[in-house]
Amino acid sequence: MIFKKVGEGKPYPDHGKQTPRDWAEVPPRMVRLEELITTKRTLDLGQLLAEDSTFYGDLFAHVVEWEGELYLEDGLHRALRAALQQRPTLHARVLVLD
After folding, report:
1. CA distances for 87 relative to 15, 91, 94, 95, 97, angstroms
2. Rounded distance, CA 5 to CA 36, Å?
3. DSSP three-state, residue 17
């Protein structure tokens, strides 16, 4: 299994981080793919395989830690690329919500 769980939607409260600039305040760290719960059930295969898919966005995935769980809010394609390359971890910005 790649992820802890495949979810649909964001079960945590709105955190107000909308743009890559907002997320830039959150320092990146390594997270294990097996600890992540996705917030999306589907992906675009073209985006997964695109070489420049992060050209206009953040280089790091966006994860929200809420109630002891790690939710992959943005970066599903990066996480799957890491899994396909047999890497068990991913660099992500982890926002901790109380």
Report:
1. 29, 11, 19, 22, 27
2. 7
3. coil
* CA pair distance 90, 39, nearest whole angstrom: 16
Whether residue 39 contacts residue 7, with contact meaning beta carbons closer than 8 Å, is answered with: yes
- In the numeric block, which tokens belong to residue 1? 């299994």
pLDDT value at position 43? 77
What pLDDT was estimated at residue 20? 86
**C-alpha separations of 53 from 43, 45, 60 in Å:** 13, 11, 12
- Summarize pLDDT for 54-80 with one digit per residue, the tens: 555 678 999 999 999 999 999 998 899
pLDDT beneath 50: ranges in the chain: none
